[in-house]
Records
---
Amino acid sequence: MPDTKSGRERKGRNKRRQLENHLARRELNADDEPPEPYAEPTDAEFLAESDDAAR
């Protein structure tokens, strides 16, 4: 079957609808509150070296 412009357009619309449905489902299933931020442990050795280099 030959490739037609209307067929390509329909396929594109179906993909867009599929993506929109996926994003809507993801948003509905998401938590109401964002997760709490956490502090990453820092290495004091690297902080001291960067302070010395700045002077």
---
Amino acid sequence: MTRTETTLAEILQSRTEDGARLHEDEATRAAIANGIAQGCRGEFATETEIVEAYKRFRE
């Protein structure tokens, strides 16, 4: 697994540690869908962008 994949897995894991179903609002679901679409097109965030996003999620 690459560092980016590991970081993304850690973010997702941190959001589901309590085992509860995630309840995102419409804006969050749209952002997730956009990210998935970007990934399907091969448009990935840089390592720096991932690290910065991970820091924000941990705050």
